[in-house]
């Protein structure tokens, strides 16, 4: 499926929710087309002038007029996608062919430290947590790992590596090591 691409330094994974301010004409067009055709768009990352290979297919779940008169949208990640045949249209809007990647398979692993630390993070940042009012899944390893990957300060190559993985195992190990090291530093 060919979709419009919205390149941002923002990292969002399936189930992730965030708000965007829309002001450039090409992205106003992207939003209009996305709403009219009910097909969403891809939140993509850039490396220099090039679009990275992996992104996240998102849908618009809400919109509003912001106090400054700009369009505000709330988006939710649907699926990880692999991009190909990327091109730039006359108005500067990037488009590309998307291949949906399968969801990470369910895991019976205990979220333990990862889930508890994410709860604490959400508690200390209620503005972020409020976006997930009805979808807090602190016992779901995939959901917890994906939320951690979204907020950690990772380089694009690290984000691209994690988004390409077939399950949450490596993400879970990586985040556990980070949290364990941070906990040890505190004592």
Please describe the structure with a list of short key phrases separated by commas or semicolons:
187 residues, alpha+beta, 36% helix
Written as H for each helix and E for each strand, in order along the chain, the element string is EEHEEEEHHHHH
Instruction: Tell me the structural class.
Output: alpha+beta
What spatial form do the alpha-carbon principal axes imply? globular
The count of DSSP E runs of length 2 or more, i.e. the number of strands, is 6
CA(first)-CA(last) distance = 51 Å
The largest pleated sheet is described as: 5 strands, mixed, barrel
Radius of gyration: 17 Å
* Spatial order of strands in the largest sheet: 1-3-4-5-6
Residue runs with pLDDT of under 50 for 5 or more positions = none
Write down the overall mean pLDDT.
Answer: 93
Helix percentage range: 25-40%
Measured by DSSP, the beta-strand proportion falls in 25-35%
Summed up, the helix count is: 6
Could you explain how this protein is built, in words?
The protein is 36% helix and 32% strand. It is an alpha+beta fold. β5 (71-88) and β6 form a beta hairpin. The radius of gyration is 17 Å and the shape is globular. The mean pLDDT is 93.
How are the elements arranged and paired?
Blueprint: E1 2-7, E2 17-22, H1 25-37, E3 41-47, E4 50-65, E5 71-88, E6 94-100, H2 112-124, H3 126-129, H4 141-151, H5 156-163, H6 169-186
Parallel strand pairs: 1-3
Antiparallel strand pairs: 1-6, 2-5, 3-4, 4-5, 5-6
């Amino acid at each position: 499926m060919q979709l419009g691409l919205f390149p941002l330094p923002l990292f969002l994974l399936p189930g992730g929710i965030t708000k965007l301010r829309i002001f450039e004409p090409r992205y106003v067009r992207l939003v209009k087309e996305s709403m009219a055709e009910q097909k969403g768009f891809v939140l993509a990352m850039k490396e220099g002038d090039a679009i990275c290979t992996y992104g996240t297919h998102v849908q618009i779940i809400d919109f509003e007029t912001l106090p400054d008169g700009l369009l505000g949208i709330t988006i939710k990640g649907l699926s990880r996608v692999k991009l190909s045949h990327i091109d730039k249209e006359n108005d500067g809007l990037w488009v590309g062919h998307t291949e949906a990647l399968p969801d990470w398979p369910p895991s019976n692993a205990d979220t333990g430290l990862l889930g508890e630390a994410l709860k604490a993070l959400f508690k200390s940042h209620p503005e972020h947590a409020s976006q997930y009012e009805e979808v807090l899944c602190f016992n779901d390893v995939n959901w917890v790992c994906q939320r951690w990957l979204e907020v950690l300060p990772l380089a694009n190559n690290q984000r691209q590596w994690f988004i390409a993985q077939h399950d949450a195992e490596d993400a879970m190990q990586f985040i556990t090591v980070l949290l364990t090291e941070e906990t040890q530093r505190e004592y």
